[in-house]
Structures are given as structure tokens and as C-alpha cells.
Amino acid sequence: MIHKFHKRKLYESMMFAYVLGIRRALPAVTIEHSLILFQKEFCMTEEEFPIDSAKVIFHRMMQEYYDYQKELK
Q1: Per-residue pLDDT for 58 more than 90?
Q2: pTM assigned to the model
Q3: Hey, where are the domains in the chain?
Q4: C-alpha to C-alpha distance for 19 and 33, rounded to whole angstroms
């Protein structure tokens, strides 16, 4: 069975990996700042990639990621 964590849209998965990578390498960088960096990196406007919505998506994905990790153990 494919876990719902793996069924996300491509840009959501990219965003999650990007933010998680920045946070693991540089824990002092906030999630919000990491999302802003992602938005700028991929030349997206606030209308195309609203930061507030992205924060909600990131936190949901983080919970799904933790749930997925638990299932693997």
C-alpha cells in the first residue's frame, strides 16, 4: 500500500523536501523563511504560492512523514 505521504502533488513534495533540507542543515532558519526561499527559488508569486497556505501544507506533511516513519518501524 502506498502511504498518503507519497501521494502528494509534485510541488508539495518538492516544497516539503526543500524546507526539510534547509531546516536539517540550518535549524535556525524558520519554516516561514524556508518557504519564502522556496518561493523565490522557483520564481513564484504570493498568488501562485501563498506562504500561509504553504505553512499549513508543510505541517500536515510533517505529521504524515512522522506517521509514515512510525509505520516503517
Answers
A1: yes
A2: 0.84
A3: 8-72
A4: 9
